[in-house]
């Protein structure tokens, strides 16, 4: 029985397909899928979902493996096995804002897509902050006065730069991860092992 892999749609999907190609897989069924959300390849069934839903499908055992950003694992803490890092989806989480600093003097207000990561990060440093949850274009928040600073993903830094913002503090580096359903790892070991092994790369290449 072929295993099922849940893939994060969009940015990570493209990078995962390039990675699969580099590992010798025929990715034609995946690249030619059009708007289909389920595709069968020679080696596995693929389903395409948003990052947090990838984690949910893996947690519930609908998918055996998942390809997801580490930010999703840190934010939602799904009950999955975090198997291995992958050499793409590389970016970092950072606190960013306007160069002249926060407007308010009281408790700092932070806009972010990642309220849990942000709360934990500041709590571990003995600070309490007010969080404003946004779903995207987080860089707008300090510009429009919704928040003092943001916590967001930075890759090239272009979005920050073009909006006149700067990194105030680097929080952590993140990459894509391969996750697994805990039961699948035991029950489908023989079909999953070759697949997982083909995703392994030298630690220093991550
Ligand atoms: N600029 C970036 N550079 C590199 N990796 C990124 C970047 N932005 C996000 N990522 C990583 O890719 C994953 C998917 O990001 P993507 O932007 O495609 O989805 P999303 O944030 O859910 O946005 P959307 O709502 O448009 O689907 C994120 O979870 C993160 O790990
Ligand atoms: O450093 P950069 O290379 O500019 O990349 C960082 C940007 O990419 C992501 O946004 P995305 O494109 O996913 O859009 P969103 O803000 O709507 O989530 C992230 O939230 C930053 O805004």
Q: What do these coordinates show?
A:
Its EC number is 2.4.2.17. With 206 residues, the chain is of the alpha/beta class. It has two domains: 4-89 and 175-205, 3-Layer(aba) Sandwich (D-Maltodextrin-Binding Protein, domain 2); 91-172, Periplasmic binding protein-like II (D-Maltodextrin-Binding Protein, domain 2), CATH 3.40.190.10. Helix content is 33%, strand content 28%. The protein is built from nine helices and eleven strands. It has helices spanning 11-22, 28-31, 51-59, 70-76, 115-124, 140-144, 158-162, 182-187, 189-199; strands at 4-8, 38-40, 45-49, 65-69, 81-85, 91-97, 109-112, 130-133, 149-154, 166-174, 176-180. Strands 2-3-1-4-11-5 form a six-stranded mixed β-sheet, with helices on both faces. Helix 5 (115-124) links the parallel strand 7 and strand 8. It is elongated, with a radius of gyration of 19 Å. The two termini are 31 Å apart. The chain binds adenosine-5'-triphosphate and 1-O-pyrophosphono-5-O-phosphono-alpha-D-ribofuranose. 1-O-pyrophosphono-5-O-phosphono-alpha-D-ribofuranose (PRP) binds at residues 136-139, 152-159.
